[in-house]
Specification:
This protein is an alpha/beta fold. It is built from 15 helices and 11 strands.
Amino acid sequence: MTNNDNKKTVAVVMCTYNGEKYLRAQLDSIFAQTYPLSEVIVQDDCSTDSTVEILRDYAQRHPNLHVYVNSSNMGFNLNFKTACMRATADFIAISDQDDVWRDDKVAVQVDAIGDANVCFSTHLRGRDMATAHVVTTQYSLPALLFGGIAGHTMLLRRDFLQRDEAWMDRFFYDWSIAVDARFYGSRRIVRVDTPLNWHRSHDGETALLQNLALFPKEERRPTWQPYFYGLRNYRRLQRKPAWQRFYSSVHSRSAAVATDDSTRLAHVMSGLMLKTGLVSLVRLMWLCMRHRAEVYPDPSRTRGMMGRVRGFFFPFIYSYRCSTFDL
C-alpha cells in the first residue's frame, strides 16, 4: 500500500506498560515527525496507572492513533509481536514508551533503508539529554551472536517482520529480528550513523529491573568481576533451553548461507557455544580475541594489549550479567 505521491507508508508500533511518566513526551515526538505516518498503533499490556487514559486522550486528537488494551498481561516480547501484526503500512517503526525521537527520524530511515530488511540508527542513552552518550551497535552476524539491535532504533519492512520466523519464542524480540534479518531475502541490515532518538535511562527500565532481579548483588559498573565470575554464568546460560534454541538456529541457518567470511565465522562460533568442553571454550575465546574488532561492542576498546585481553575474555564479559536467556 502506498500513498498517492508514491511515498512508502509507515506505521509506528509502540507497546506500553505503566508508562505515564514519560509517555506524553514520546507521543509528542512521534506526532511531530516530518514524514507522514499512516498509522500509530499502541498496545497496552494491562497498565495499572494512567497510561491508557493518556493514550485515549491523544487518540481523540490524532485519528491515525489506534489504541488496543490486552485482556491479560502478555509480557513485552509477545506484546510487541502481536502489536506489529496489526500494522498494514509498508514499513514499521518500533517505538518504546519512554524515548524521545528526533523529528526527522522516520524520514531519514525511509530514505536510508533501500532494499534492506532493517534500517537502524545510533542513539543517545542517558538519564538526561545533556549527558547522554552515543550508542553505536555492531551488526555483523558474529557480533549478533552476543547481542541484538535496540528495537526502538529500527525501521523494518512489514513483509519481513510479519513472519513467525522473525520472532523467537521467549527471547528478546529485537535480537531475534536482527538475526533473522541476516538470513532473509537480501540479508541486509543498514545503519544510520546519526543518533535519531534519545533512549532514557531510568530506574523503571524493563531490562534494568530484570537484571537487578537476577543479579541483585552484582556491581552496577563491573570492572574486574566479569573476568573472574563470568565463567560461572556462561556455564549456567549454556544449560538454558533458550540458549540451545538460539545458537542451534544460528548454527544451522548459517551453514546454509556460509558464503562469506563473516557468516562462516558465526557458524563456527555458534557451534562452539553449543559445546560444553574446555577445548571448545578456549577456541571460542581465541576467535573472540582474533576477531575482537568485529564482535566486541565497542571496537575502540579492542586496541593494544588490554584490547586483546578483553577480546579473549569476551565470552565471560558477555555472559557475566546476561539475562536474555532467562525469559
